[in-house]
Write a structure and sequence with these properties.
alpha+beta; Double Stranded RNA Binding Domain; six-stranded mixed β-sheet; 16 strands; globular; Lipoprotein; signal
Length: 436
């Protein structure tokens, strides 16, 4: 999966370069500057609406071939599994949002290691109607509402104003596609959100599989239904072997999905309302054979290709630091090139701080975030706790600042420009290093 994603990003990057050359359009990675507003307007009142679309729930790596049939049989066992997993596993509104995922976990976890069930199972496509009904529209609405609630919580945390909407009103607005009635009620923008995919991804016999969740955002100006933002955002979490994901009635998978809601809620708010583009969108040197988009690393540098060679890359593409509490350093914001590109706007930037994230690497993708600091006053930081020895890590950084008194954040630094918008940080496009 990571290889396919790498190829997709590479294709997009090549197309972006070609478009820049032919049209000089303002695209991610182009040398020309983005359109920077002369002044930052006050944040409008926003209505957050969730669709009732059913997400694609796929637990790849849990069941293959006839084992899928075993995982999809036994309605009574299926329902009992769902009931048992809901006992004491979560509290509050999140439980409803996780219901369909819990049932999905029961479907696949019930077939893990069930050799007899696999032998007797019908083909995977033969699923009983009663079981298919468990992923009905009502449960889809719960899944989407959970994301909406997390976005509302993230907006409240940032001091952004929201407008309450009844579910029936929101559904009618989404189906009709006309949000101008909200403008008459003093609502300036409508954010329509959808969880589109969730589950695990990976292949191989007893190989680690990665948990993920993906959502689609559409921000609309209610005055004229003009789309201000259309974007997919994605959380890619930890990797575990199948039996580890399934332990304790799927608790690790439930925890991952719950964390994914939190991350995507924050990422949605930042993407739609807080993120501010760098005036200079060109890549800056990140080390030997590496280019950074965003604040480039000063130490440790990154070396080599985005996707390291599976054998030689373990050492060549992961720069070795000198101790377990390295002094991480990066470019200060605004960079000199940002000031040259947009001097008037950058002169209005104040109260610059930095956010740092470090995640342990597992199979060349980020696993758990092991170190996080927000609001650092300087473009550098000595780690306050030691990292593990002889371990590979991904890391990334961004600036948060005030512009005309309003909070803004830059995109997280990456090795390809597309990774700044689509993937939660750190991602497999973040910088890399290894400890002694």
């Amino acid at each position: 999966m990571a290889d396919r994603l790498t190829m997709q990003f590479a294709r997009r990057w090549r197309m972006g370069v070609l478009a820049c050359t032919l049209t000089m359009a303002v695209l991610p990675g182009c040398a020309s500057a983005p359109v920077i507003p002369a002044a930052v307007p006050a944040a409008p009142v926003v209505a957050v609406l969730a669709t009732d679309d059913l997400p694609v729930v796929s637990f790849d790596g849990f069941a293959h071939g006839k084992l899928k049939g075993a995982a999809q049989t036994g309605g009574a066992t299926f329902l009992a599994c769902g009931a048992s997993m809901m006992q004491g596993t979560c509290t509050g509104g999140l439980c409803g949002g996780l219901a369909v995922f819990i049932l999905g976990i029961c479907t696949v976890a019930g077939g893990v290691g069930a050799a007899t069930g696999a032998v007797l199972a019908p083909p995977g496509g033969q699923v009983k109607a009663a079981e298919a009904g468990l992923t009905a529209a009502a449960q889809a609405q719960q899944v989407q509402e959970a994301l909406r609630q997390h976005i509302l919580a993230a907006m409240t945390k940032q001091g952004l104003r929201t407008a309450p909407l009844e579910a029936a009103q929101a559904s009618a607005l989404i189906q009709g596609g006309d949000f101008t009635s909200l403008a008459d009620a003093g609502v300036g923008q409508a954010l329509v959100v959808t969880v589109t995919r969730a589950g695990t991804q990976g292949d191989g016999i007893n190989a680690p599989v990665q948990g993920y969740m993906q959502a689609h955002l559409r921000l609309v100006d209610t005055r004229d239904n003009r789309e201000l933002l259309v974007r997919d955002i994605r959380y890619e979490g930890e990797r575990h072997k199948i039996l580890d994901w399934s332990a304790d009635n799927g608790q690790p998978l439930l925890a991952m999905l719950e964390h994914a809601y939190d991350v995507l809620g924050e990422q949605a708010v930042e993407s739609a309302f807080l993120r501010y583009p760098f005036p200079d969108t060109r890549g800056h040197s990140a080390g030997q054979g590496a280019v950074a988009y965003g604040l480039a690393p000063l130490f440790p540098l990154t070396r080599g290709a985005v996707k390291p060679d599976p054998i030689l890359g373990r050492y060549l593409n992961w720069v070795k630091v000198d101790n377990l509490q390295p002094h991480m350093r990066w470019q200060a914001f605004p960079r000199d090139s940002d000031r040259r590109q947009s001097p008037d706007v950058m002169d209005r930037v104040s109260d610059v701080r930095y956010d740092l994230r470090i995640a342990r690497a597992e199979k060349d993708v980020p696993d758990a975030v092991v170190y996080a600091r927000d609001g650092l006053a300087e473009p550098g930081h000595v780690l306050e706790v030691p990292l593990a020895a002889d371990t590979r890590y991904f890391w990334t950084v961004r600036a948060r600042f005030r512009l005309d008194g309003h909070l803004r954040v830059t995109p997280w630094s990456t090795l390809l420009p597309q990774g700044q918008n689509e993937l939660a940080a750190p991602s497999w496009l973040s910088f890399r290093f290894r400890t002694p």
